Structure formats: C-alpha cells, structure tokens
What does this fold into?
Amino acid sequence: MRHWFFVFRFRHFGELDMRCPTGGMVLHAWTRKGAVKAAWEMAQKRFPQKPDELLWVVEVRDEDARDQAAMMDRDWERAFSKFHELMTVS
It folds into this structure.
C-alpha cells in the first residue's frame, strides 16, 4: 500500500506553517503505523536539521496534496542522483 507524506521544518517554540512543506515522500508499507515510522526515519536522513529545528511528518490523503508530495519526492530523488553522479569518481 502506498502512503504520501509532507515534511515540515520549524524552529523550537516556533509556529508550524502547514502551507509550505520542506519536502514530500512516497512510501510503500503494509500498515499505516509502519509507513509513519519509515517516513520519520527517511525524513531524518533526507532533511538534516539545525540544532534549533524540528521536523514534522504529516500523512496526506487529498489527491492534490498526494500529487504534490510525489512531485517533491521525485525532485529530491533527481537532485540526489545528480549529486551522487558528481561525487562518484570514475
């Protein structure tokens, strides 16, 4: 089963702005609980935090939000692929 997530970044004691996600992720998991855990772990790896920042992972179910999360996920994958290609020694 596929699950879509938005990742938000905000400062300690700051206000969470739900209008502007930092990134999106699409994950495959059997259960919702497993998907949330996997999303949290992936967000920790993909989006490094400053010492005064927190990440917030939100599952999205609206069709437009799912499309946006998928596009953000593909964008991150493309950027990482380019970075990996640049850093690989031939």
User: Anything to note?
Assistant: The chain has a mean pLDDT of 92. The CA atoms of residues 1 and 30 lie 6 Å apart. The chain has one domain: 2-87. The first helix runs from residue 32 to 46.
